[in-house]
Amino acid sequence: xxxxxxxxxxxxxxxxxxxxERVKNVKLRDAIEKFMNGLFFVCGMVSxxxxxxxxxxxxxxxxxxxxxxxxxxxxxxxVWASTAADPQYGILPFILASVYGTFGACLIGVxxxxxxxxxxxxxxxxxTAGVVRTAVELLSGIPSVVYxxxxxxxxxxxxMSAFSLKNGTCLLAAIIVLSIMILPSxxxxxxxxxxxxxxxxxxxxxxxGATEMETYxxxxxxxxxxxxxxxxxxxxxxxVGEAMxxxxxxxxxANMPGxxxxxxxxxxxxxxxxxxxxxxxxxxLYSIGLILFLFIMIINTxxxxxxxxxxxxxx
Length: 315
Fold this sequence. Notes:
This protein is 78% helix and 1% strand. The chain is built from 14 helices and two strands; from the N terminus they run αααββααααααααααα. The relative contact order is 0.13.
């Protein structure tokens, strides 16, 4: 008889000859699969439990002060004087400063971040893209305190001299610093999403006579909008939650916000008073944290609904 083909010999050598051995291998594989499924389930439940615990803790810690002060006085009061003889706990200036600061940072950072992501994923050569990506990675790795330090040393005096102000620590300085800080999140996530768009979409658009720019903005960008929106949400989350850099350039005064006015954000209000607070003052700071938490939840919910509505309309 002739020799068996090499593939047949390899199959016979690797395939168990004993039926019992084959059954054991199948059972072992099933056991490993069940274990991994259980492990993934436990990890998912731990994540959900952490979110639930944080939510419960924030509600339990934050509600007492809101009830004691009064929701209207707390949310719409314009005076924050927590250490005065007759303390007042109005956080409307903090809320508006955070809203204006985040909106201003997004107004600058989102277009710049999207343009940079399109440039990296569609236009730039490999060497140029590598240099720009390295710069973006360095931006994401810089500590917040360094952003604040550079802003305080360079940006604040520049604003003061450019607009003839007595004090350059203002909302504008915070907006500029935040707009730079949110760029890495927007660029990285948006570039990944744009690079994942199938080439057939762009080739079909170009074949129909569209220019490259029209293809990038009318085909690639809409196709990657879920990832782009995720990057924007991450950027908004960083802008809303930033404390140290904002504290160093915003002035930390509980004023109603103006572009050239020293302001206090929700985050900086907590950071600057938590170390010496007590009693109702500390409870009020927990309440500010609850408002900040709700702020982030609302942003995520709204963005999710808008994306879902857009996908439904597209279908």
